[in-house]
Design a protein that fits this description.
This protein has two helices and five strands. By secondary structure, the protein is mainly beta. The N and C termini lie far apart (28 Å).
């Protein structure tokens, strides 16, 4: 429980639009959404970076999320993601940040 789960590999780069701040950040294939967001918004909250605690939870406005967390319910996943571990299916996500 306190270590990262196995990844399927083959991650690709994508963009995340931070709607409220008016910024767009690139998330590299070997990076996390959290790391990319914190590069431009360093006060973004996070804690475990493993997808368990929910501190980094963000509202998703558009795009399809590749959920890799162990916390959110199916209902919550319809409009939120944990940016420390989850990624995009496709080339772009829009977050309420």
């Amino acid at each position: 429980r306190f270590s990262a789960g196995a990844r399927s590999g083959g991650d690709t780069a994508f963009e995340v639009e931070l709607r409220r701040s008016g910024r767009t950040v690139a998330v590299g294939a070997d990076s996390t959404v959290l790391a990319a967001v914190r590069a431009v918004l360093p006060d973004t909250a996070y804690s475990c970076e493993q997808g368990f605690c929910g501190t980094c939870r963000q509202r998703v406005l558009a795009g399809e999320v590749d959920h890799r967390d162990e916390l959110l319910t199916d209902g919550e996943r319809a409009s939120a993601m944990l940016i420390c571990v989850s990624r995009a299916h496709g080339g772009r996500l829009v977050l309420d940040l």
